[in-house]
Amino acid sequence: MRKLSFPNGKDKLVQECIRIILECIYEPTFSNLSHGFRPNRSVHSALAQVETWRSTVWFIEGDISACFDEMDHRILESILRERIDDERFIRLINKLLKAGYFDMEHNFQTTKQGNAQGSCASPILANIYLDKLDRFMENIIQRDTKGKYRKQNPKHAKLRYQLNT
User: What integer pLDDT is reported at residue 2 of this predicted model?
Assistant: First the structure.
């Protein structure tokens, strides 16, 4: 179950400042194929992009539904350090991530991983975390969709053959 955070007014202001700063740093370099939680992008822009695809012969299915819950703080910190030199800002983000939450029995729980729902900085942190996956997938797309005879998944080719016979 995804953790909920209910920040007070001062915390919301700090989180919004974090979001604005991170967006200025990362948004211009995010993949054009990324649409989730981004300014001027949505499910509709993603579907519009899918409609432009022609002769698609393979898809990769994945599930990132637990991304917010399972996000490794050390990996995220490492990714942030690639572009951010300000140690105080990194520590502030770590404090946000490790702020903790109250469970259903009203007991305070420390946060060791994940990105709590309710923080306005949560979506940009997830996009920063997933940008590595986006870049990896872009490399696969470029590598495997060149030329007249693109690589095909054998299972997909077999299924297409069975459907056509």
Answer: 57
